[in-house]
Specification:
- The chain is α/β, with parallel strands linked by helices.
- The protein has one domain: TIM Barrel.
- It contains 11 helices and 8 strands.
Length: 249
Amino acid sequence: MRKPLIAANWKMYKTPAQAAEYVQTFLPLVAGHNRDEIVLCPSDTSLSTVIPAVAGSNIAVGGQNMHFADEGAYTGETSPVMLKAIGATHVIIGHSERRQYFNETDETVNKKLITALKHTIVPIVCIGEVLAEREAGQTDDVLRRQVSLALAGIKPEEAQPIVIAYEPVWAIGTGKTATPEIAAEAHLTIRSEIARILGREVADGIRILYGGSVKPENASSLLNQPEIDGALVGGASLDPQSFAKIVKY
């Protein structure tokens, strides 16, 4: 059984004080909820607030990004060593906004994935097609390419911690959501590509999340698809009540 993972990506929202207030409200709403792994991913400035605030609870904390080097002259970047040192256990890698606005490539995603595994940080690797690619019938090709390049050099015995998040870019922040059937079909494609690279047994154990305008209203229909192992939630995770409803789909 793959344990579902529900992750909140707060993006560039919430000051440390706002993050602390959120956690205070959110913790009682999901207390004792152990069916799913719950991860909060605040901005770097709030990590040191959120991590101690959730200590001893059923909630983990991750970064929204990291550099692939352990240290160096990379102004503005955060290293895996830094994330690990403050208690972060997960990291989002290759989010479509990182690819779109900050020139992240499949190659840098691969480097970050390798580094995350080296430091035993759980990587949540984002992939997905843009609207033009879907309309051109290229979804399968795009997903297979992104998966194969992300996993380059990864050995089957190293792959178990990896989480893949399928994010149809046309559904992020647009209010559009892939139907459960479209999402499940994409997840099957992703899992078959993982199986081609790493073997069926490894592929059957890797969790694949859906991300793209997940809300309390559609969470159940999406997350009850057998191929969907959780969600990476953006806007709807900014309100603790809303995110708690998604966690309890």
